[in-house]
Amino acid sequence: MNGKDADPSAPARGGAAREPYWARGDIDGFFGLFVDNLVQLMLIAALCGTVCGFPSDLVTATILPGAAISILFGNVFYTWQARRLARREGRSDVTALPFGINTPTVVAFVFFIMGPVYRDTGDSRLAWQAGLFACFLSGIMETIGAFVGEPLRRATPRAALLSALAGVAITFIAMGFVFQIFASPAVALVPAIFVLLTYAGRLRLPLGLPGGLIAVLLGTAVAWATGACGSDAAGGAAIGLYPPRPCAGDLFSYLFSDKGWRYMSVIFPMGLFNIIGSLQNLESAEAAGDRFETRPSLLANGLGTLVAALLGSAFPTTIYIGHPGWKAMGARSGYSLANGLVVTALCLFGGIGAVMRLVPLEAAIGILLWIGLIITGQAFAEVPRRHAIAVALGLIPALAAWAVFLVEAALRAAGADLAAVAPKFGSALFIHGAIALSQGFLLTSMLLAAMLVFVIDGQLLKAATWAIASAALAATGLIHAYRITPQGIENVFGVWCSPAFSLAYLGAAVAMVTLHCLRAHENRGPDELG
Fold this sequence. Notes:
Blueprint: H1 25-50, H2 56-89, E1 99-100, H3 103-121, H4 124-155, H5 158-183, H6 185-200, H7 211-226, H8 248-255, H9 264-287, H10 294-310, E2 318-319, H11 323-328, H12 334-348, H13 352-358, H14 365-381, H15 388-413, H16 418-425, H17 431-438, H18 441-456, H19 460-476, E3 482-485, E4 488-491, H20 499-523, H21 526-529
Antiparallel strand pairs: 1-2, 3-4
Helix pairs in contact: 1-2, 1-3, 1-7, 1-12, 2-10, 2-12, 3-4, 4-8, 4-9, 4-10, 5-6, 5-9, 5-14, 5-15, 5-18, 6-7, 6-14, 9-10, 15-17, 15-18, 18-19, 19-20
């Protein structure tokens, strides 16, 4: 099950065991999760200043400390949860769920909520309050999801859950970082290859040194030797003490106005993104050998996000993709708690910029590439062979979302916008099809994969149920519906938002029910027919 040789201290399931407070693999797990969290905090510091006009003291003294406390809250809970599972099952090989702020939420909240408010009003404080509003509502959604998530998880085929997760892994994680690796081969390529050699090849290094740590040190040494030192992109925060402060007044002053509700087209899909993504991550963890209870896991998600909003962070927290990767590294529970403590210390003392200047990001992203690859591979390996084609189908919506992301990023860099350029693409690029598929792509991935699983298994009525659900979601705008504006792509909610897609899914449902009835008729015996 693990990507390394088995830990000799790990007994068989059911034996007397105590989860270690710190295992050798926790060093690798810590560096992987820490780098991932550091990337999100760096993006927050950079984008909040350039896109939303936030002054540096707002970012350094309020947003980053609030984000750090919310991350620590979740890391402490998931560390406790893993140790509790280990005691209950008599195991010492339980890996805690990874936790933090995810990149898609950061990008969506910055570019589609806080950025537009700042452009429209020129008021950075109002833009920040809009972000708090969005974060708070997302936390409410995640908390509600804790009580309705388990039935959804039981009703959804494993292939549907894992394929959507694999789509995110191969696009927004693996592809983004692999581009960055090959853009800086002198610093990034050697550490990335070293990570793959040690993890995929299950190589044990002399003295039991962790491969991830050696890769980071190797890349850092090359960077300093060649003059390609760490970047100052994390905001250049001054060293000092920045304790978290309550921001309920700013939050509720915006919550009880009518200004924020027009951004529900962004808030609602991203809330669903975090709920469904967490369910998929729980499914992924179970496939790797660790079954965590759904309700407390999702409840910690929601409470962590509410803590963030009340302490001034505009960015929801969630269970991270990558549990099987950390487990394959030999990480247990210590890596999670260590990550929370170190991230909190850095944010409370303004150390994010200093770390980024010392250790180049390129030296560590090979670990994240490995996480993306192992999640994608798991989606195919942990489902019945006949369902592999359903997993492949489920990857396509994420690929569409990634393609749209690249197109939009390229146009923004060139000083253009999609609204002006889209009519010029013509048949050279079916951009409208890509956008329609990208809207609500996590839901679409699950729906398409689930339909195909039940078709493969010959359960056409269940497949038809998923087709009807697809039609309903398209009709209300949760999938496929959009409009292109100069500010970007916006979701459209309402009644009968995507009639073409709704009718197509309904037609598929009718066809499935008809075929089911015909097959039932053919299978009836002669006496029954008479």
